Amino acid sequence: MQTIAPELADFAALIADPGRAGMLTRLMDGRAQTASELARVAGVTPQTASWHLARLAARALLKVERSGPRRLYRLATPLVAQMLEAMMTVAAVEPNPSRSPPRIDPQMRRARTCYDHLAGELGVAVTDAMRQRGHLRLDREAGELTAAGIAFLGDLGIDLRSPARSRRLLCRPCLDWSERRPHLAGRAGAALADLAFQRDWIRRRPQGRSVEITADGLAAFTTLFGARI
Amino acid sequence: MQTIAPELADFAALIADPGRAGMLTRLMDGRAQTASELARVAGVTPQTASWHLARLAARALLKVERSGPRRLYRLATPLVAQMLEAMMTVAAVEPNPSRSPPRIDPQMRRARTCYDHLAGELGVAVTDAMRQRGHLRLDREAGELTAAGIAFLGDLGIDLRSPARSRRLLCRPCLDWSERRPHLAGRAGAALADLAFQRDWIRRRPQGRSVEITADGLAAFTTLFGARI
DNA sequence: ACAACGCTTCGATCATTGTCGAAGTGTTCA
DNA sequence: TGAACACTTCGACAATGATCGAAGCGTTGT
């Protein structure tokens, strides 16, 4: 017998609530949020949110830190974010080809962070541009930064050895659920996103994971990277 | 607002039923099964199973083929299997360190197929052995077959170019949910599993995804590969 | 054409679980 | 010490959805 099946079902049930799913997607950028903020995105009262958060934390999907009188919740590991991304990718497959694509928030579709790197049209466009210029080779399952790519990023001030001896992969693909194509992830993707925030090419919107592309950003992505966005 | 959250929740709800979870795990080896067989593993009546299967197919998790009077269901894409594997990996994290590990079916833990390659203790042992002999480099995020590894597999009669110009990656890691360590997947992993079946090193058990290691298999994995199992 | 079989649809029932009000805990600051 | 605040626990209620019996559909073989 498949003794894991009940466990898998229990586990999936954790995500199978709109409130909890909302909280999890809200946390997919890797940052911590207060219980109140998560109650807000879930659209429920603090009591209800607290109950949901307790369940998620009990199953090690979230970890909680205390900060004064408030509690901060974040995803327990990057693995959780990867799993959610995988689920979204499969969930985004349009089951009924006749129906119009599910209404995805346009801002979200345009540009967002996926844990710690760029996603959405922006993420894919930048990835495509780097690929076209020979900075990057990337398919759905693996990726590789070329010498030219490393030099290019180096010129921008990105030191890819930054977290010295990091066990994390330099360059890996991440399947973009809204574009249904891979974008750049891994250490390189994270470093690129960091740079974009530092240079004010993109700004986090107050709520959610979507980001705003500034005028500077538009210019930079277009001219420096050759991205078509 | 996160317009995807409700979709994600709906999607997760599909997996959040013990019956459906059982059906899905049963199908994770990539083969097709009849509705009756799936009703059996789910432990429900055919009517109920039919209802579950219809839901899964409607959301494009499964696809159905007719074969005479019976209907055969299989996973719609390998991506679905990968997603389920990712979920199991996260679900298998023991939330309560005090409790003993969740009782996983020992046969399942010992040796099973994961879509089309080897998993469980056997899968990890073979992977480790190949790694130790310099045939393979592999971590959680990426993998690479060395020249020695390609030669080694070639000597065994594995032609890794077999599906000519396959878009599928030669060598990639797959995180083993029972062992919590990566094992060999991709085209190389599939070819190796094929070989093991052909040479009768392993045999599918009548039900489920677990496989039996034959005496020949034990000898082959130990001597040929140097695996400690 | 008819019977047998596998599977699906329909309808009613019952359990699970998400929900919020009220009350409780713990932390910070005055 | 006491008040304010963030969050959690408890208890009861309502809705969603899984289940099976009964009946219907479609395919195969006689």
Summed over residues and divided by their number, the pLDDT of chain A gives a mean of: 90
Classify the beta-strand content of chain A into a percent band. 15-25%
Strand order of the largest sheet of chain A: 1-3-2
Major beta-sheet overview of chain A = 3 strands, antiparallel
Can you describe this structure?
2 copies of one chain form a homodimer. Chain A folds into 2 domains: 4-76, Orthogonal Bundle (Arc Repressor Mutant, subunit A); 82-224, no CATH class. Chain A has a 3-stranded antiparallel β-sheet. Chain A has a two-stranded antiparallel ribbon with strand order 4-5. A two-stranded antiparallel ribbon of chain A has the order 6-7. In chain A, 46% of the residues lie in helices and 17% in strands. The first copy, chain A, is of the alpha+beta class and 229 residues long. Chains A and B meet through helix 1, helix 2 and helix 5 of A and helix 1, helix 2 and helix 5 of B. The first copy, chain A, binds a DNA duplex (30 and 30 nucleotides) through helix 4. Chains A, B: This is HTH arsR-type domain-containing protein. Chains A, B: GO terms for molecular function: cadmium ion sensor activity; DNA binding; DNA-binding transcription factor activity; lead ion binding. Chains A, B: Residues 1-95 form the HTH arsR-type domain.
